[in-house]
What we know:
By secondary structure, the protein is an alpha/beta fold. The chain has helices spanning 11-22, 54-63, 131-134, 152-159, 178-186, 234-237, 274-296; strands spanning 2-7, 27-31, 70-74, 77-82, 88-92, 97-105, 109-111, 127-128, 143-147, 166-169, 190-192, 196-202, 205-211, 216-218, 221-225, 228-230, 242-243, 247-248, 261-263.
Amino acid sequence: MLDVVIVGGGPAGLSAALVLGRCRRRVVVLDAGRPRNATSHALHGFLTRDGVPPLELLTIAREQLRPYAVELVDAQVAAARRHEGGGFEVELDDASRLFARRLLLATGVTDRLPEVEGFGPLYGKSAHHCPFCDGWEWRDQPLVAYARGPGAADFALLLTSWSRDVLLCTDDGEGPPPDDAARLARAGVALRVDRVARLDGHRGRLERVVFARGDAVARRALFFHLGTGSTGDLAAQLGCRCDDEVGVHTGPREETSEPGVWVAGDASKDVLLAIVAAAEGAKAAVDIHRSLLREDSPG
Length: 299
Ligand SMILES: Cc1cc2nc3c(=O)[nH]c(=O)nc-3n(C[C@H](O)[C@H](O)[C@H](O)COP(=O)(O)OP(=O)(O)OC[C@H]3O[C@@H](n4cnc5c(N)ncnc54)[C@H](O)[C@@H]3O)c2cc1C
């Protein structure tokens, strides 16, 4: 039986694998190869790696796992359950199975994207979800915040850290409540609640937002805030406490409500940055190693 199976080979999973590998644990990382930021041209805000292509970070991480007893397998995990004899059974897409004493889920999240014509070619180039990741590149440029619902006004106000020229488009015909509209007006954020027909751009560069009534507003970049969903239901299959807002609930060491199962990275929806995901992976790995030691040398 393996010591640990890690599901997900993004920053969280690979960081955990590195720490566990260096603890001489036998680890398998199962990864479906769809990292959340694959469409992005550059990863920002990751100490010593600011601006690297996101996949380059993962390539370096995988290379640096070579000296250790960590196996990297390209595979989609279909199911996970407790095994009668102790530990966990993990079932892959091809129906093969792995058995491990501990399980770390580092499966990330799924972004809800704007369903607006013209969005696809802009995504990751001049349409972003995270101002902390990409705001600096668009400082002092005309920006559009595409958001609706309770957090829309706060999201548009956040963008004023990078530009004084922000337009909030709710594209829902309703807009924010009066209090929020007043806060936006005080901060100089423009507001359009009417329908967006399409986004016009060239070579991945946003040029204008075109509204259904026919007029258009010139903008250089779009930031959207529509929430995230879970990537699959492995945590729920295992009985871990989870919900839409928080994702999988975790304790201070990334442990879940289910003994033997940890969750690191975006899947536990804390701060959704790659360096935080990596840090959570390292924290989970230390805790997993200690829990295995305790099991092997009971007091
Ligand atoms: C467009 C974009 C740009 C971004 N830019 C930045 C940035 O500049 N700086 C920054 O810090 N953060 C950025 N982020 C956020 C960053 O991508 C995430 O915080 C980070 O990737 C989270 O790492 P993770 O390991 O938790 O998840 P992920 O990187 O999403 O990795 C999860 C992995 O698990 C795999 N997986 C999921 N389910 C299964 C399964 N059932 N079986 C097997 N494998 C599975 C997936 O295929 C994926 O490879 C950006 C995000 C997006 C969407």
